[in-house]
Amino acid sequence: MPAQGKHRRTRTISLRRGLTAVTTGGAVLALPVIGATSAFAAPAPAAPQAAPAPAAVSAQANSAAQAAPAQHSVKAGETLSKIAREHSVSGGWEKLYEGNRKIVGENPDLIHPGIKLTLGAASAKASDGKAAKASPSAARADRSERIAAAPVANAAPAAEKRAVAYTNDLDGWIKESLAIMAEQGIPGTYEGIHRNIMRESSGNPAAINNWDSNAVKGTPSKGLLQVIDPTFQAYHVPGTSTDSYDPVANITAACNYAADRYGSIDNVFGAY
Q: Residue 49 — very low, low, confident or very high, per pLDDT cuts 50/70/90?
């Protein structure tokens, strides 16, 4: 076992001694002795801060976002009046039409699903952020308002174009009527129209009822959906014939009346 040695404590010599005199040929030189504890670390340079975005650029971005005009994609059954009302368009449907005339065309009644209308930067939704749903009475007023305002002269060419695409039979008459109804915002389906036609006239466009109470009053029911003349005239749809025996005119007028009174021709299952 090795002998245990004494541990010597290391002598610490202070380096801080002030000035040490060195004699060289009688000259005394005062040399500073640097103290080990006198050194300090240089402060680290501050990290560069990102320069804030110029206020003008931020303001311009906000202004651009606020100024961007809102748009609305037209859905089947919608009208300019309904869209203007739901989006609180200043100036109503006339202003909406004026700003979108190039895309809508010359007839404000004929707006096609899928087109995008510019509503204007100042337009706003209903207060809760959702488009307000129109009540049935408001929807009927909207339909009557737009139909009354529709220029017949402008609608006629559209009717001529449609006539080329449909067969001259019950199937073609119903399909052509449905196309017009979609343009005018009048609800109804092929099944609902066909079911009521077969009950009312068995598909005969020249059918007339000369025995019921209407006939006694001098206004017999006529045509595919057995409409009396006063009703036909009140609910006639522009762009269709003014002859109540005309199949397409008779169907669209009857469906317009049924929509006003029952919500849709689909809701009619008997005399109406």
A: low
| Tokens matching residue 202 | 């068995």
Q: How far is CA 49 from CA 46, 52, 56, 58, in A?
A: 9, 9, 20, 19
Please choose, from the candidates 53, 73, 54, 56, the residue with its C-alpha nearest in 3D space to the C-alpha of residue 64. 56
**In this predicted model, which residue has the larger pLDDT, 251 or 121?**
251
Virtual torsion, Cα 81, 85, 88, 93, nearest 10 deg: 10
Judging by beta carbons within 10 Å of its beta carbon (0-12, 13-18, 19+), is residue 81 exposed, middle or buried? buried
DSSP bridge partners of 216? none
> Which run of H or E residues covers position 66?
helix 55-67
From CA 136, how far away is CA 262, in angstroms rounded? 10
- Single pTM value for the model: 0.44
Handedness of CA 188, 189, 192, 197 (dihedral sign): positive
Read off the pLDDT of residues 84-139 as tens digits, 9 standing for 90 and up.
888 888 888 888 888 888 888 888 877 878 888 898 644 334 334 433 344 444 44
